[in-house]
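Can anyone check this?
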Amino acid sequence: MSDSTVSTRYWEALEDGRVRCTLCPRFCTVREGHRGVCFVRKAEQGQIVMTSYGRSSGFCIDPIEKKPLNHFLPGTPVLSFGTAGCNLTCKFCQNWDISKSREMDTLAGNASPLQLAQTAERVGCRSIAFTYNDPVIFMEYALDVAQACRESGIHSVAVTAGYINPQPREAFFNAMDAANVDLKGFTESFYRTVCGGQLAPVLDTLLYLRQETQVWFEITTLLIPGLNDSDSELHRLSAWIREALGAGTPLHFSAFHPDFKMLDRPPTPAATLSRARKIAMEEGLHYVYTGNVHDPEGGSSWCPKCQSRLIERDWYELGEWGMVVDEQGAGRCAHCGETVPGRFESRPGVWGRRRVPVRIEPG
């Protein structure tokens, strides 16, 4: 095996010589030397190996709000990186040059878990994010990085579609402090025809996060005109989140722009995001946000009880801070005392909207 190839746990050998990957609901069955749909998991020497360990498409410091996470250490910087490949085949992928890559040359950066933890500490990041492509497919690398970061007091954040089987899901999220889960639509037909997957496993992941873990999580739905933005679907999606996950679960609606295999669709109008936000709030969700558009009202956090502004946001720039935070990181409205779900610090960070490429120091 090469330095970037490591053994994995989630697979089973079949009698015909093929190997079945059991990491995600695709259950790819591959012959020796062949790869699964995600591209980075491969049959080699009678097992499934991961071929992108320690390699990345690049490293960058982002605002945590860009993940997007609005209730997790607001205003702080997060060290972000991804690898290549994906276990879904979304036709609208906004990061297709990374997630759909079939070239290992995309992975120009090299970094050990310890190097990443040390870099996050050196540049003042409170957390590290596995993003750009889905960390589920580079799980072994992500878990080692998360462990190294935990030992240094750095939080780990997964930006994921939640498309993972129950057994690896437990190990994966046990290492995470926060997550943003893409709920790409709310019909099986959308997941099947547009994403090449299934809705049910994603809902199972969300239920698991709420019922079985202490991971702070938020949800993002990218709205595509004419495909997943109808009033009826938005009502159903919002009602399910309220009933299954709780009214305090933050929901982000973000704007689509034509990309990858969906160049024929128009960009999402800002009015669609505002309509979706209104519907979700009518369904009883307390924290609903708009993304990828300039909307200070839809980007800010508001108290569901007294309607005071809790956190002012203009793009990723924080302004007014209307919360009181205790020593355990629990927040409440400074005006009426209403509890605000999330993980907060006594003062917001001041990173702002900057996006800064990072060079990993040699180990």
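Reply from J.R.: I decoded it. The two ends are 22 Å apart (CA to CA).
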